[in-house]
Amino acid sequence: MGPPKQPPLSGHSVNRFDTFYIIKRVSEQNDNFSNVSPFLVEKAITGSVGTVASTKLMRSGDLLVEVASRKQAQQILKLNSLSTIPISVQPHITLNSSKCVIACGRLLNLSNEEITQELGGQGVKDVRRINIRRDGELLPTKHFILTFNTPRLPEYIKAGYVRCSVRPYIPNPLRCFKCQRFGHSKTNCRGTLTCARCAVVGHESTGCTAVEQCVICQGQHTSFSRSCPKWKQEKEVVS
C-alpha cells in the first residue's frame, strides 16, 4: 500500500485550469447575445466543446460559460465563432480566482515576492502583506492576503514545514472619499465634497481639527471609523 492520497485543495499542488469564460460577439454594431436564440447558443457550444457545466447570459449581453474539464478549457479558447456568429473568448477576470487571509509569524521577514514564488506550486499567484499604521509609521504584520488561481480555497497551505490555516478574505465596504457614502468610489461620485472628519460639506479632512462627526450615522466619530455601526453593517453585507 502506498501513502494515503491527499484530498483535493488540501494545500498540496493539484492540476488547475480556468473554469469560467466570457464569450463576446465580434461586431461593428456592438451586437450581443441578448437576441440570439438560446437553442442555437446551446447547440453551438455543445457541438464545439461538448456539454459544459453551465451557460448564462450576463447583463452585458455576453455569455458566461463554465467548463467541466481541462480539455474544454483548452477548446473554448480556440473558438472564434458560434455557428455563424464571430466571437472572442477570454477567461473571466475574477471568477477564476479566490482570496484568503493567513497569519504566519515565520513569514514576517520574507518579501511578498519570495513568498509568492515559494507558494506558487499550491496555486498562489499573488501575496499582499497587511500593514498597520501606528504613531504615523507603517508597520508590517504577520497577516497576508493570498490570491489563488482557482475559485475554491484550500483547507490550508504549507509555508515550508509550517501549516497555515486559511480563512476567506472579506474586503472592507467600498466608501467614497468624496461624499463619504458607501457603495461607490470617488471616480463615480455625483455627490458633494464632504469632510470625513467633521461631516461638513465643502472641504476635505486633511488639516481639519473640528469635532468628529460621521456623515453616515451622525455619530461622534470620523466617517472612516471602523467603530461606526453602519460600517459594521456594511461589512456584514459584503461577507
Automatic annotation (TrEMBL):
Keywords: Metal-binding, Zinc, Zinc-finger
SUPFAM superfamilies assigned: Retrovirus zinc finger-like domains (SSF57756)
CCHC-type domain boundaries: 175-190
Domain of life: Eukaryota
InterPro entries from the UniProt entry: Znf_CCHC, Znf_CCHC_sf
Keyword field contains Zinc: yes
Presence of keyword Manganese: no
Alphabetized GO MF terms: nucleic acid binding; zinc ion binding
Entries under PROSITE patterns matching the protein: ZF_CCHC
UniProt-listed SMART domains: ZnF_C2HC (SM00343)
Name of the featured protein: CCHC-type domain-containing protein
Organism name: Araneus ventricosus
